[in-house]
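<derive_structure_tokens>
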Amino acid sequence: MTDLDTYRARETERLRTDDLVALLPPRGQSALDVGARDGHFSRLLAARFDWVAALDLTQPTFTHPGVACLAGNATALPFPDDSFDLVFCAEVLEHIPSPALEQACAELARVCRKHLLIGVPFDQDIRVGRTTCRHCGGHNPPWGHVNRFDDARLNRLFPALLPAQRSLVGRKRERTNALSAWLMDRAGNPYGTYAQDEPCIHCGHALGQPAARSLLQKICTKAAFLGQRLQYPFVPEQANWLHLRFERPD
């Protein structure tokens, strides 16, 4: 299981949090935190909003003044239209496969009265860090990230809202190529994100640890890394996170 305190103490996470907070409106009456988990952002929202709803698939268990913890699904939010001055959703949309993704985005827009703040990985190559499930043999994207986002895709997902403020956070250079990704699959993806909490997207079981590799699989691994090294000088740096605040037009 991920230690959230350790995770959020990392410099990259502090930068991401600071940037999201900087994009928040200064004050408001109500806010919705979708995917609240342990309430990290719900607590920060409570410093600016009179009332905050912290929602997750399983009802969050933390307590904080001005915050109500609720169980619910982003694809069917239990609130009337235009319920919240701010709807906040970070580290969520990358985990939701289509067509549920489109339904979740429609729900986020529906309950938003003024502002919608979205945080997603920016143009992530979800072939990097892929895993192989020990139970069914299926290949999984890293950290359960089944979607890849850029500005254009987010704008298409929220057609009724207007982009108001955008920022890019962090730097990365994580890219692979079709051949190296194929070779890693043949090798059993031994260096994937097996520490993730997210289960296999194919069978729902825990991923388990990678299986022992045969000699041929070890050769495939080395060839995959060689292919990545050869392309590395031509891979530009790019941002790690995309934060986009939308507004409902008057």
Notes: The chain has seven helices and nine strands.
